[in-house]
Amino acid sequence: MKKCSSIDTDDILYKIIAEGVKAGKIKVSGIVCPQDERPDNSETEDIVINTITVTHDKPQSGTSNVNIYVSDKKVKIRGREQRKADRERLREIGDAVVAYLEAQNVADLEFWIESDTVVKEQQVYQHYRNLRIGWNIH
Fold it and tell me: What are 55-102's pLDDT values in tens digits?
């Protein structure tokens, strides 16, 4: 395999996850896209991919993110309406993405999930589940 760039690793993850959505294995109300292509003020369930780093030495290694955005749900706590993470949708979508990724076999490439956490998006009423992906490219 030729040397990969961060754009290439984004494309690889995009293709895999988009195939999972198209096949109905991953169900989201929104889109799968690279980080800078998510629509501003999106309120749909979107899966956003970005790569943090890819080394240039052979074998290459790298780290990417798969962020699964879900709008917060309105709940009443002590009589006050508040917005909180929709943990069930974050669980459902995230677990489907994890299962789909773990079932893939890509030539000259291995990847694994390094970490999994939920983060509050500060600008809008959403949380996202961050799956950090580690890469080895042979």
Answer: 998 889 999 999 999 999 988 888 888 889 999 999 999 999 999 999
Strands in the chain per DSSP E:
32-34, 46-54, 60-71, 73-77, 80-84, 109-121, 126-137
Whether the model pTM is above 0.85:
yes
